[in-house]
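Lesson 9: reading folded outputs for more than one chain in a single document. The general rule is that every protein is listed as its sequence immediately followed by its structure tokens, and records are never interleaved. Here is the first one.
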Amino acid sequence: MDLPELKIGQFVAKIPIVQGGMGVGISLSTLAGEVALNGGIGVISGVEIGFNEPDYLKNKREANLRALRSHIKKARDICKGGILGVNIMAVLNNFEEIAIEAVKQKIDIIFSGAGLPLKLPQFTIGTDTKTAPIVSSGRAAAVICKKWHKHYGVVPDAIVVEGPLAGGHLGFSETEIDQPSFQLSNLLKNVLDAIKPYEEIYKKKIPVIVAGGIFSGKDIADLIKAGASGVQMATRFVATYECDASEEFKKAYINAGFDDVQIIHSPVGMIGRAIKNKFLTDVAAGYKIPIRCLCNCLKPCNPVNAPYCIADALINAQRGNLDKGFAFAGANVYKIKEIVSVQQLMNELVSEAKNYMK
């Protein structure tokens, strides 16, 4: 049995796999373009995307916008008409201008989480760009639908529900991540129930994409059978030749064991999942890494109280300087044993999922 196509507005992905946006600089044009070329939806991370621009520290605003334009163009050149998205965290200080620029560049879909993107339709209404907020509960999905319906007369074109096994910043408390009620299958059901009234009002299906800890084709098949329209995967795509991270970053994934995956407390006031290393061990021991606020990137971050600059740490990690940073990763990163091509990974996932769809 074939996998269903993933339809988001007028965009139809042959393979219902969205490559999750990973910042800083882990999913840029090369990875996103290759995923889109191979039938999925490729996603560029919009978080401090200009970090490699020569004037980034002096002219951050222009560097980020210039790099966003450049990466969208490069990804378009790679994917030859495939579907591309940009992930823009709602807590970014430059959320609005990155969203506006992405729409100007005719990006297909804007994915937005880490907070509720309640004003996102301001920038997309009247354009071909579709919206896909990322939530961690049915309640959050309902709040977004209610606000968008009331203020803009629209609902999301898709919704991503991300469970507690994801990498990076999580929309859960430390006590919630192990509770059965917060596991992905239950979250999916809650979101499907929460959006039903709005599907009826607008007489259209709002596809729900599930994310967080999805590793295998069997996972994909099981979740589609449970009502998901597609899945979002991030960690698996780091261990590909085309991922935009350094080789050292990818090796951290390959070498990670089960006990190396840990929950951390981020300077932005959220918990996150990352791979244990000396940098994180020192932070946990109370050492404050001498910092300057690199880019004033996230609204909740207070540089005076932060033990380290998270942007600086993630940029260092992307470049392979893991003694001065760390790698976010999903809970199942320890299962990854080799680096493969995006095409090989997509083929393996689809082949296995089809077997379990029977």
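And here is the second record, again sequence then tokens.
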Amino acid sequence: MNIPETGLPRIVVIGGGFAGISFIKQLRKQKVQIVLFDRHNYHTFQPLLYQVSTAGLEPDSIAYPLRKIFRRNIDFHFRLAEVENINTENNTIETSIGSLKYDYLVLATGTRTNFFGNESIAENSMPMKTVPQALNIRSLILQNIEKADITPDEVERKRLLNFVIAGAGPTGVELAGALAEFRKGILENDYPSLDEDEMHVHLIEGQDRVLPPMSEKVSKKAQHFLEKLGVQVHLKTLISDFDGETVTTKDGKKFHTATFIWAAGVTGAPVKGINGEALVEKANRYSVDQFNKVNGFENIYALGDIALMKSEKYPKGHPQVAQPAIQQGENLGKNFKKILKGDKLEPFKYFDKGTMATVGRNKAVVDIGKMHFGGAFAWFLWMFVHLWFLVGFRNRVITFFNWTYSYINYDRAARLIIRPYKKKSPSLHKEEEAAVSSSVEA
């Protein structure tokens, strides 16, 4: 692999997500060599992936080139590759483009979709963890509506216009709300031969309320917003099967659909080579100490979703969302400066800035400490926070313009079938999931 030997400590980072980029940014002026590996050449702002899948934004609004982010870093190198194995004895990683030695290794590989071992769902449903997957969902949604517009078969039209989402966490709730608004704002104007009432959006959740990680107060408010938009919410309902045409639940319900989106959970995306006591298999996360050092290793660290740092307040580790990843990356970056100087390290302390989710136009819910509220103010707060954390000034401007345009015109300008979706064979689907798990940060 063509990485120059400089004599400086070499830090290899796997994953260009929130944790990886916040860590590398801290070392911008340090005398170290940083090598970043990712299977994409861009960082994805995953909280807004659902807007790409529902034609609210184009993918380049939420993606940003990794090389551009770090162009000011001294001795920074990016390699587009998949990391296949870690040889901890020789301090070497093996990738799809060759092997490389490291002095320090930072794992920021994030999560992959968790199908809970259900092969039929894994093969036939639509996950949404990457930009290509979000574009697949967008294409499938639009293709199915186009087919419904011309089919004379009422049963088939009903199936094509029946949208089912599994999982009522923030992703599922936001997807359901966006689809419901698509029905109200687009269907009537673009497809006059289709009746708005023919399009149905179902949100299925195994627990007894939507947004289980958030407070009960905002959970009830979010469900009220969803139902007001026409989303049919099914609680305490577990999905047992999806054969490509029918979603079947454990209590016998059946949903005939051509679009089934799986947003019901994630699991860690570990890299081969680090196992044993370091890997907590049930969670697929690396057990780390308060400095994010992987247990059993002196020069390997894990950040964000892949790191399991237990504490009294977080006995199951920190939530697998952006803020813990960003804060862990910043803290480890500052600690590396101390490592280089031989100073005492600072343990990680998570500052919970709150949780929020949007349901639709003027409809969002927010938990900040003991404050729980929803409505228009929460929606504007949600927009401000997401704009603030987007990477790149251009992306902020474009996203803000798109949101303003959509707010004024009740429109979704990105409803283009650029890459028609064609169902892959099960083997290809599994290969794609495996590839995503090797180097994607959530």
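What the second record shows: The longest strand covers residues 33-38.
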